[in-house]
UniProtKB/TrEMBL annotation:
It comes from Prunella fulvescens (Brown accentor). Signal peptide: none annotated. Pfam families: bMERB_dom. Residues 13-154 form the BMERB domain. Residues 23-50 form a coiled coil. The keyword Transmembrane does not apply. InterPro entries: bMERB_dom, F-actin_Monoox_Mical. Keywords: Coiled coil, Membrane, Monooxygenase, Oxidoreductase. PROSITE patterns: BMERB (PS51848). The keyword Membrane applies. This is MICA1 monooxygenase. Its main location: membrane. It is found in: Membrane.
Amino acid sequence: YPTWKRTLARRARESQMKRFCRAQAIQRRLEEIEVTFRELEQQGIKLEKLLRDENESPADKQTQWTNQLLYLVQKKNNLMTEESDLMIAVQELKLEEQQCQLDEKLRIYMNKEDTLKTPEDEKAEQEILKQLVEVVNKRNVLIQLQEEKRLSEL
């Protein structure tokens, strides 16, 4: 087993492990965001009830509650933006994994001697190459989307 093959296999495992760890971290953060959403909803409901029920309370109290409610809405919007970014990251990870799998399949066909390739092998190689280009284009679209989003936030 040549050294370069072992190196490629090791690098593939390492990158797969990195993707797995990133996916786990994203999943944890999405769960945290979900919990925070629920907490913000509960706080918002309490503040809305206070504002509706306490019409006779001092104006400064009502202003304080309104400001708290606006702060909760802003916090919720920030979390929604983060959640959206994380969902894009999840899609990107899936495409990255798909690209690695296609790379491995393509490498098998490309390492085969041209004289030993059957027409089916060549057809399969072309199909994998086509799929690989599609995946790369999808990843490119996601990256452009993230960049546009980042620029619009600035």
